[in-house]
Design goal:
Oligomer: single chain
CATH class of the largest domain: Alpha Beta
Radius of gyration: 20 Å
Structural class: alpha/beta
CATH superfamily of the largest domain: ATPase, nucleotide binding domain
Shape: globular
Number of domains: 2
Order of helices and strands: EEEHEEEHEHEEEHHHHEHHEH
Distance between the termini: 18 Å
Bound molecules: zinc ion
Number of strands: 12
CATH architecture of the largest domain: 2-Layer Sandwich
Number of helices: 10
Largest sheet: 5 strands, mixed
Strand order of the largest sheet: 3-2-1-4-7
CATH topology of the largest domain: Nucleotidyltransferase, domain 5
Length: 311
Protein backbone atom coordinates (compact mmCIF):
# COMPACT_ATOMS: atom_id res chain seq x y z
CA UNK A 1 0.00 0.00 0.00
CA UNK A 2 1.55 3.26 -1.12
CA UNK A 3 -0.05 6.57 -0.14
CA UNK A 4 1.04 9.69 -2.00
CA UNK A 5 -0.18 13.27 -2.28
CA UNK A 6 -0.45 14.93 -5.69
CA UNK A 7 -0.83 18.64 -6.25
CA UNK A 8 -1.63 20.57 -9.41
CA UNK A 9 -0.37 24.16 -9.18
CA UNK A 10 -2.09 26.47 -11.62
CA UNK A 11 -2.06 30.25 -11.94
CA UNK A 12 -5.50 30.66 -10.41
CA UNK A 13 -6.29 27.41 -8.64
CA UNK A 14 -4.60 24.58 -6.92
CA UNK A 15 -5.95 21.06 -6.52
CA UNK A 16 -4.61 18.45 -4.09
CA UNK A 17 -5.47 14.74 -3.96
CA UNK A 18 -4.34 11.89 -1.74
CA UNK A 19 -4.06 8.60 -3.57
CA UNK A 20 -3.76 5.12 -2.03
CA UNK A 21 -2.64 2.47 -4.53
CA UNK A 22 -4.21 4.23 -7.50
CA UNK A 23 -7.47 5.15 -5.71
CA UNK A 24 -8.20 8.80 -4.99
CA UNK A 25 -9.22 8.83 -1.33
CA UNK A 26 -9.35 12.57 -0.67
CA UNK A 27 -9.37 15.76 -2.72
CA UNK A 28 -9.48 19.50 -2.10
CA UNK A 29 -9.52 22.61 -4.26
CA UNK A 30 -7.89 25.89 -3.21
CA UNK A 31 -7.63 29.32 -4.79
CA UNK A 32 -3.93 30.03 -5.31
CA UNK A 33 -2.59 33.29 -3.98
CA UNK A 34 -0.53 34.68 -6.86
CA UNK A 35 2.96 35.46 -5.58
CA UNK A 36 2.68 33.06 -2.65
CA UNK A 37 1.97 29.97 -4.71
CA UNK A 38 4.30 27.73 -2.71
CA UNK A 39 2.99 28.98 0.62
CA UNK A 40 -0.52 28.02 -0.52
CA UNK A 41 0.80 24.73 -1.90
CA UNK A 42 2.44 23.74 1.38
CA UNK A 43 -0.72 24.57 3.33
CA UNK A 44 -2.80 22.57 0.84
CA UNK A 45 -0.56 19.49 1.11
CA UNK A 46 -0.66 19.72 4.90
CA UNK A 47 -4.49 19.62 4.76
CA UNK A 48 -4.42 16.16 3.18
CA UNK A 49 -1.30 14.92 4.93
CA UNK A 50 -1.36 11.63 6.84
CA UNK A 51 1.61 9.89 8.41
CA UNK A 52 1.60 7.06 5.87
CA UNK A 53 2.27 9.42 2.90
CA UNK A 54 5.61 8.34 1.40
CA UNK A 55 6.04 10.83 -1.45
CA UNK A 56 4.67 14.02 -3.01
CA UNK A 57 4.05 14.76 -6.68
CA UNK A 58 3.59 18.28 -8.01
CA UNK A 59 2.55 19.41 -11.49
CA UNK A 60 3.09 23.02 -12.52
CA UNK A 61 1.81 24.88 -15.60
CA UNK A 62 4.97 25.96 -17.42
CA UNK A 63 8.55 24.89 -18.03
CA UNK A 64 9.74 22.47 -15.36
CA UNK A 65 13.19 20.90 -15.40
CA UNK A 66 12.87 17.18 -14.79
CA UNK A 67 13.91 15.30 -12.68
CA UNK A 68 15.45 18.08 -10.56
CA UNK A 69 12.03 19.72 -10.27
CA UNK A 70 12.94 23.34 -10.85
CA UNK A 71 10.06 25.50 -12.08
CA UNK A 72 11.90 27.52 -14.72
CA UNK A 73 9.20 29.82 -16.05
CA UNK A 74 5.59 29.94 -17.18
CA UNK A 75 3.41 32.71 -18.59
CA UNK A 76 0.51 31.95 -16.22
CA UNK A 77 2.37 31.33 -12.93
CA UNK A 78 4.32 33.92 -10.92
CA UNK A 79 8.05 33.50 -10.29
CA UNK A 80 10.91 31.77 -12.09
CA UNK A 81 13.74 29.32 -11.34
CA UNK A 82 12.07 28.05 -8.16
CA UNK A 83 13.53 24.78 -6.79
CA UNK A 84 10.09 23.35 -6.01
CA UNK A 85 11.28 19.77 -5.49
CA UNK A 86 13.88 20.82 -2.94
CA UNK A 87 11.46 23.12 -1.13
CA UNK A 88 8.83 20.37 -0.79
CA UNK A 89 11.38 17.76 0.31
CA UNK A 90 12.77 20.12 2.95
CA UNK A 91 9.29 20.93 4.21
CA UNK A 92 7.79 17.42 4.37
CA UNK A 93 10.81 15.13 4.67
CA UNK A 94 9.73 12.73 1.89
CA UNK A 95 10.83 12.49 -1.76
CA UNK A 96 9.07 14.88 -4.16
CA UNK A 97 8.57 14.45 -7.91
CA UNK A 98 7.90 17.67 -9.80
CA UNK A 99 6.99 17.93 -13.48
CA UNK A 100 4.96 19.91 -16.00
CA UNK A 101 1.20 19.68 -15.28
CA UNK A 102 0.31 18.30 -18.71
CA UNK A 103 2.85 15.47 -18.31
CA UNK A 104 1.11 14.62 -15.04
CA UNK A 105 -2.33 14.69 -16.69
CA UNK A 106 -1.05 12.43 -19.48
CA UNK A 107 0.18 9.90 -16.93
CA UNK A 108 -3.23 9.91 -15.26
CA UNK A 109 -5.09 9.41 -18.58
CA UNK A 110 -2.64 6.65 -19.50
CA UNK A 111 -3.18 4.68 -16.29
CA UNK A 112 -6.77 5.50 -15.33
CA UNK A 113 -8.45 7.43 -18.15
CA UNK A 114 -8.94 7.72 -21.91
CA UNK A 115 -5.54 6.29 -22.93
CA UNK A 116 -5.43 3.05 -20.89
CA UNK A 117 -3.56 0.37 -22.84
CA UNK A 118 -2.17 2.82 -25.43
CA UNK A 119 1.49 3.35 -26.27
CA UNK A 120 1.75 6.45 -28.48
CA UNK A 121 -0.55 9.23 -27.40
CA UNK A 122 -0.67 13.01 -27.45
CA UNK A 123 -2.48 14.88 -24.70
CA UNK A 124 -3.57 18.38 -25.67
CA UNK A 125 -4.97 20.51 -22.85
CA UNK A 126 -7.07 23.56 -23.67
CA UNK A 127 -7.59 26.20 -21.02
CA UNK A 128 -6.02 29.60 -20.49
CA UNK A 129 -3.55 28.40 -23.11
CA UNK A 130 -2.67 25.09 -24.75
CA UNK A 131 -0.56 22.59 -22.86
CA UNK A 132 0.51 19.21 -23.99
CA UNK A 133 2.31 15.98 -23.35
CA UNK A 134 3.80 13.26 -25.50
CA UNK A 135 3.45 9.60 -24.56
CA UNK A 136 5.90 7.51 -26.59
CA UNK A 137 6.24 3.74 -26.16
CA UNK A 138 3.97 3.89 -23.12
CA UNK A 139 5.98 6.50 -21.23
CA UNK A 140 6.01 10.30 -20.98
CA UNK A 141 8.55 11.73 -23.43
CA UNK A 142 10.08 14.99 -22.17
CA UNK A 143 12.75 15.75 -24.74
CA UNK A 144 15.60 17.26 -22.77
CA UNK A 145 12.90 18.58 -20.36
CA UNK A 146 10.30 20.81 -21.99
CA UNK A 147 8.68 18.77 -24.82
CA UNK A 148 5.00 19.33 -25.58
CA UNK A 149 4.82 23.13 -25.36
CA UNK A 150 3.05 23.24 -28.72
CA UNK A 151 0.66 25.96 -27.59
CA UNK A 152 3.54 28.20 -28.66
CA UNK A 153 4.26 26.70 -32.06
CA UNK A 154 3.83 29.28 -34.79
CA UNK A 155 0.29 29.22 -36.17
CA UNK A 156 0.27 32.53 -38.02
CA UNK A 157 3.26 34.77 -38.79
CA UNK A 158 2.75 38.25 -37.26
CA UNK A 159 -0.51 36.97 -35.75
CA UNK A 160 -2.15 37.86 -32.45
CA UNK A 161 -0.12 38.74 -29.35
CA UNK A 162 0.46 35.73 -27.08
CA UNK A 163 0.91 35.77 -23.27
CA UNK A 164 4.41 34.33 -23.83
CA UNK A 165 5.52 37.56 -25.51
CA UNK A 166 5.58 36.23 -29.08
CA UNK A 167 3.00 36.61 -31.82
CA UNK A 168 0.85 34.13 -33.69
CA UNK A 169 1.20 31.13 -31.33
CA UNK A 170 -1.37 28.33 -31.75
CA UNK A 171 -2.96 29.12 -28.36
CA UNK A 172 -3.86 32.64 -29.50
CA UNK A 173 -6.54 31.05 -31.73
CA UNK A 174 -7.40 27.82 -29.90
CA UNK A 175 -7.94 28.40 -26.15
CA UNK A 176 -10.44 29.83 -23.68
CA UNK A 177 -9.24 33.43 -24.15
CA UNK A 178 -9.34 32.94 -27.96
CA UNK A 179 -13.01 31.93 -27.75
CA UNK A 180 -13.80 34.89 -25.47
CA UNK A 181 -12.07 37.23 -27.96
CA UNK A 182 -14.18 35.87 -30.85
CA UNK A 183 -17.28 36.55 -28.74
CA UNK A 184 -16.25 40.14 -28.04
CA UNK A 185 -15.43 40.74 -31.72
CA UNK A 186 -18.76 39.31 -32.83
CA UNK A 187 -20.69 41.40 -30.31
CA UNK A 188 -18.88 44.60 -31.32
CA UNK A 189 -20.12 44.02 -34.88
CA UNK A 190 -23.59 42.86 -33.79
CA UNK A 191 -24.42 44.82 -30.62
CA UNK A 192 -28.14 44.11 -30.96
CA UNK A 193 -27.71 40.41 -31.74
CA UNK A 194 -28.96 37.60 -29.53
CA UNK A 195 -25.45 36.66 -28.41
CA UNK A 196 -24.76 40.22 -27.23
CA UNK A 197 -28.01 40.03 -25.20
CA UNK A 198 -27.01 36.65 -23.76
CA UNK A 199 -23.54 37.90 -22.87
CA UNK A 200 -24.49 41.22 -21.29
CA UNK A 201 -21.61 41.12 -18.85
CA UNK A 202 -18.64 42.75 -20.58
CA UNK A 203 -16.30 40.43 -18.66
CA UNK A 204 -17.85 37.26 -19.99
CA UNK A 205 -15.54 34.30 -20.41
CA UNK A 206 -15.21 31.36 -22.74
CA UNK A 207 -17.43 29.41 -20.36
CA UNK A 208 -20.30 31.85 -20.92
CA UNK A 209 -20.05 31.18 -24.66
CA UNK A 210 -19.82 27.41 -24.31
CA UNK A 211 -22.87 27.47 -22.00
CA UNK A 212 -24.75 29.52 -24.61
CA UNK A 213 -23.67 27.02 -27.27
CA UNK A 214 -24.90 24.12 -25.11
CA UNK A 215 -28.21 25.96 -24.68
CA UNK A 216 -28.58 25.97 -28.48
CA UNK A 217 -27.43 29.51 -29.39
CA UNK A 218 -26.40 29.13 -33.04
CA UNK A 219 -23.93 32.05 -33.01
CA UNK A 220 -22.20 30.69 -29.92
CA UNK A 221 -22.01 27.27 -31.57
CA UNK A 222 -20.43 28.91 -34.61
CA UNK A 223 -17.76 30.55 -32.43
CA UNK A 224 -16.96 27.28 -30.65
CA UNK A 225 -16.73 25.64 -34.04
CA UNK A 226 -14.23 28.30 -35.23
CA UNK A 227 -11.98 27.50 -32.28
CA UNK A 228 -12.47 23.79 -33.03
CA UNK A 229 -11.29 24.39 -36.60
CA UNK A 230 -8.14 26.15 -35.37
CA UNK A 231 -7.61 23.24 -32.98
CA UNK A 232 -7.90 20.80 -35.89
CA UNK A 233 -5.36 22.70 -38.01
CA UNK A 234 -2.80 22.61 -35.22
CA UNK A 235 -3.48 18.93 -34.51
CA UNK A 236 -2.58 18.21 -38.13
CA UNK A 237 0.91 19.56 -37.55
CA UNK A 238 1.24 17.38 -34.44
CA UNK A 239 0.03 14.31 -36.33
CA UNK A 240 2.61 15.00 -39.06
CA UNK A 241 5.36 15.06 -36.43
CA UNK A 242 4.34 12.33 -33.97
CA UNK A 243 1.89 10.02 -35.80
CA UNK A 244 0.06 9.18 -32.53
CA UNK A 245 -2.40 6.29 -32.26
CA UNK A 246 -4.70 8.50 -30.15
CA UNK A 247 -5.13 12.19 -29.31
CA UNK A 248 -6.74 13.03 -25.96
CA UNK A 249 -8.07 16.57 -25.56
CA UNK A 250 -8.40 17.79 -21.97
CA UNK A 251 -8.53 21.02 -20.00
CA UNK A 252 -11.53 23.25 -19.30
CA UNK A 253 -12.29 23.98 -22.94
CA UNK A 254 -11.61 20.39 -23.98
CA UNK A 255 -14.46 19.24 -21.76
CA UNK A 256 -16.85 21.08 -24.10
CA UNK A 257 -16.73 17.90 -26.18
CA UNK A 258 -18.35 17.33 -29.55
CA UNK A 259 -19.22 20.92 -30.48
CA UNK A 260 -15.46 21.61 -30.30
CA UNK A 261 -14.00 18.26 -31.36
CA UNK A 262 -16.42 17.65 -34.27
CA UNK A 263 -15.07 20.62 -36.29
CA UNK A 264 -11.51 19.77 -35.18
CA UNK A 265 -11.87 16.24 -36.59
CA UNK A 266 -13.38 17.49 -39.87
CA UNK A 267 -10.56 20.01 -40.45
CA UNK A 268 -7.90 17.51 -39.40
CA UNK A 269 -9.34 14.85 -41.73
CA UNK A 270 -9.15 17.33 -44.64
CA UNK A 271 -5.70 18.67 -43.84
CA UNK A 272 -3.81 15.59 -42.61
CA UNK A 273 -0.70 14.79 -44.61
CA UNK A 274 -1.39 11.87 -46.99
CA UNK A 275 -5.03 11.96 -45.89
CA UNK A 276 -6.42 9.66 -48.57
CA UNK A 277 -3.85 7.00 -47.66
CA UNK A 278 -3.98 6.94 -43.84
CA UNK A 279 -6.63 7.07 -41.13
CA UNK A 280 -7.04 10.06 -38.82
CA UNK A 281 -6.17 8.95 -35.28
CA UNK A 282 -9.14 9.09 -32.88
CA UNK A 283 -9.47 12.51 -31.20
CA UNK A 284 -11.28 12.00 -27.89
CA UNK A 285 -12.17 13.92 -24.74
CA UNK A 286 -10.04 13.29 -21.61
CA UNK A 287 -11.84 11.20 -18.99
CA UNK A 288 -10.44 12.43 -15.69
CA UNK A 289 -11.49 16.08 -15.92
CA UNK A 290 -9.87 18.84 -13.86
CA UNK A 291 -8.39 16.37 -11.36
CA UNK A 292 -6.14 14.69 -13.91
CA UNK A 293 -3.03 16.80 -13.16
CA UNK A 294 -3.19 16.19 -9.41
CA UNK A 295 -3.96 12.48 -9.85
CA UNK A 296 -1.07 12.10 -12.31
CA UNK A 297 1.23 13.88 -9.85
CA UNK A 298 0.28 11.39 -7.13
CA UNK A 299 0.83 8.49 -9.58
CA UNK A 300 4.26 9.82 -10.61
CA UNK A 301 5.19 10.06 -6.92
CA UNK A 302 4.04 6.45 -6.36
CA UNK A 303 5.98 5.22 -9.41
CA UNK A 304 9.03 7.22 -8.41
CA UNK A 305 9.12 5.92 -4.85
CA UNK A 306 8.58 2.32 -6.00
CA UNK A 307 11.45 2.68 -8.48
CA UNK A 308 13.67 4.00 -5.67
CA UNK A 309 12.72 1.10 -3.38
CA UNK A 310 13.39 -1.43 -6.14
CA UNK A 311 16.96 -0.22 -6.56
ZN1 LIG B 1 3.09 31.94 -27.16
Amino acid sequence: MVATVGIDLGGSKLLVVRVDDGDVVERELFASAGEDLLVTAKAAIRELWTDDVVAIGAGIAGLVRYPDGVFVWGPHVAGSNIPVRQILEDEFGVPAFVDNDANMAALAELHLGAAVGRQDVLLVTLGTGIGGAVVANGDVYRGSSFAGEWGHMLYQANGLQCDCGKRGCWETVASGPALARLGREFNALNPDGQLAKTLRDANFSAETITSAADAGDETARGLVSQVGAALGQGLCSLIAIFDPELIVVGGGLGSVGESLLGPARRIAADAIHGGSHRPLPPIVVAELGPESGAIGAALLAAQGIQAQLAR
